[in-house]
Amino acid sequence: MANVSVYNIEGKEVGTIDLNDAVFGVEVNEHLVHMAVINQLASNRQGTQKAKTRAEVSGGGRKPWRQKGTGHARQGSTRAPQWTGGGVVFAPVPRDYSFKMNRKEKRAALKSALSSRVEDKKFIVVDEMNFDEIKTKRFQEILSNLNVDKALVVLEDGDKNAEISARNISGVKTAKSNTINVYDILKYNTVIATKAAVASIEEVYA
């Protein structure tokens, strides 16, 4: 099992914790990690681009001139793609960019991302992060104590004040243990998790 230090919010080491190898010590599957990131980004795309085809633009109901004898090339409509104001060839239409990943693939990708953070020593465990009041400055001090600037902070349901305190800090995002995803884990330089959040992650994914 991987053994990592546990820190308090003052940045001092207060113990160690054994991480479950079934979650934090798996062999990293780069292909699945890549697929998970692409899947999330594709699912976030709106897909609302639209242009009109020649069947949808207005006008062009009559033939502009007769077929033969004018010296012009034959034309059937003034709304064909080669005309100004004409329709677009193969015009983009609203579509859904998302694609399906199997549940086992998603779980394996998440475990790989977490394992890579532990392997790179970019996974920090804190004993707790309970705030008596909403205080952004206090949260910033905690990050400074841990020598972290850009981080994904994984909290539990009882840490609402801490979650709100981090909301306005640039480069910091909070997440619950059941909402973490591969993209965020890799996007931020460091993952900070409370002991309760680590236990919850292991319970769900082990």
TrEMBL record:
It comes from the Bacteria. Residues 44-85 are annotated as: Disordered. GO terms for biological process: translation. One of its GO terms (cellular component) is ribonucleoprotein complex. Keywords: Ribonucleoprotein, Ribosomal protein, RNA-binding, rRNA-binding. SUPFAM superfamilies: Ribosomal protein L4 (SSF52166). It holds the Pfam family Ribosomal_L4. One of its GO terms (molecular function) is rRNA binding. HAMAP family: Ribosomal_uL4_B (MF_01328_B). Belongs to the universal ribosomal protein uL4 family. One of the primary rRNA binding proteins, this protein initially binds near the 5'-end of the 23S rRNA. It is important during the early stages of 50S assembly. It makes multiple contacts with different domains of the 23S rRNA in the assembled 50S subunit and ribosome. Forms part of the polypeptide exit tunnel. Part of the 50S ribosomal subunit. This is Large ribosomal subunit protein uL4. It comes from Muricomes intestini. The gene is rplD.
